[in-house]
Amino acid sequence: MTLGPLIVQSDHTVLLEVAHPDAEDARHELAVFAELERAPEHIHTYRVTRLGLWNARAAGHTAEEILGTLNRYAKFPVPAGVASEIEDTMRRYGRLTIERLSSDEAPASPSADDTAAPQLVLRSDDPAILREVTSAKKIAPLLGNRIDERTYPLEPWARGELKQQLVSRGWPAEDLAGYTPGEPYGIDLEQQGWHLRDYQAKAVEAFQRGGSGVVVLPCGAGKTIVGAAAMAEVGAKTLILVTNAVSARQWRDELLRRTSLTEDEIGEYSGQVKEIRPVTIATYQILTSRRKGEYQHLSLLDAEDWGVIVYDEVHLLPAPVFKLTADLQARRRLGLTATLVREDGREGDVFSLIGPKRYDAAWKDIEAQGFIAPAACFEVRVELPESERMDYAVAEDQDRYRIASSTPEKQRIAQRIIEKHPGESVLVIGQYIDQLEAMSDALGAPLITGQTPVDEREQLFQAFRSGEERILVVSKVANFSVDLPDASVAIQISGSFGSRQEEAQRLGRLLRPKAAGITASFYTLIARDTVDQDFAQNRQRFLAEQGYSYTILDAHEV
């Protein structure tokens, strides 16, 4: 009997032997419920978390399936304690439900100060569980007087906060209370010359079945089309929240191309334009802009009778929008993202307030179907010159990353990489504006930063798409929702420390299928033996999570 590639440990970590012939199959099944923690070259470490198990349960997976995966690929028997903990954790999801009380279920003898039967209730089939959570100091104020031993009323405003508190206590509630239909507004998909891909249709179906939640798809796999199809299914006024004005205009263009909507029916609500239409596209930036300490535009979220709110790049949802989203639990909510990872650790709030993961398609599966391009990933290690090494050695901790990641040596290596890819379209991506300006001058290539006017950005992006510009130097403004289908080479010269979500977005710039069918190349330039290299190890976790191997090269090998 062949021993499997996994070692399941009693601390809920799972070790994956990368070179094992079954490693890819095991990784694919692990991704359903486990989070990758470390990804060195030979052994990858995953952790089975409560949130991962609850997301899997909400997406329709069972404890039997998950234990089946572990038992099938394990080199040694799965510890009994881990197996029972997985079963217990998944059993907790849905033991509490939030429901809408029907009129015939109202209390027979309401107290004198009751003016109406409560609309929402917290229920459990186990009175002991209900007693445990309702006695918690942060939960008790959200509930009214007990209706019976299995039912407590709650105020409509408490729906979101209650779900947050229940998750934090380890008892995630299944929200069955339904959603307001919103103001009806007919939206049709116009599928002349194209059709929904199978995984897109499954994602829309999963969202419709749950009413709210998150769809996880790789960049280039058509998340915008999933959003459009969900809007058509709901058939109501829609608010779409996006990362920036460029993304807003790309959403508008895609909706005009794929649906029956006209320009007059789609409004943009950003720093430049303030339009509210049946379909309104707003930026996170404008929602979280403050004047005299007040978030003056957050009221937009409740300004209309929206039937659905779409959160694009939901892993970037700003904290102030979470707070208001807690008050919007009666609206359908669709989160779209390439990764559920949040650098601020608020994945639990996404689960509670936007909804659990409803659908997740493996990147490599979609690549195998030809819908996104294959990619080869490289880490190129650069030596700091002696003078920079000394500067790095004596610098304060907060300055070391900038010194290491901004070394001019990266400029020379980037030029050599570009020479290795004649005729291909190249993105050079970085974090620090002075570094990018120097790179732009050295390459004679246009630079796009946050200071570049939106119209100029769109002109440069269009010149890149048409082939008029072969190289673009871009800051992190190009991380999100920028459609550059012909980019086949990306050179990452600096980034936001160890951000996995940024790694997802930057790799995603390359994954639109190429007309010539070529493999994309993703290079990350790293200063050897510095914090730059340390942070790179965290970013690589994302590549490994999605099944991408990466090759480590010395600069002289380029």
From TrEMBL:
Residues 412-558 form the Helicase C-terminal domain. Pfam families: ERCC3_RAD25_C (PF16203), Helicase_C_3 (PF13625), ResIII (PF04851). SMART domains: DEXDc, HELICc. Keywords: ATP-binding, Helicase, Hydrolase, Isomerase, Nucleotide-binding. GO terms for molecular function: helicase activity. Its EC number is 5.6.2.4. It catalyses: Couples ATP hydrolysis with the unwinding of duplex DNA by translocating in the 3'-5' direction; ATP + H2O = ADP + phosphate + H(+). Residues 204-358 form the Helicase ATP-binding domain. It is an enzyme of class 5 (isomerase). The keyword Acyltransferase does not apply. PANTHER family: GENERAL TRANSCRIPTION AND DNA REPAIR FACTOR IIH HELICASE SUBUNIT XPB, RAD25/XP-B DNA REPAIR HELICASE. Belongs to the helicase family. RAD25/XPB subfamily. NCBIfam families: repair_heli_XPB. This is DNA 3'-5' helicase. It comes from Leucobacter muris.
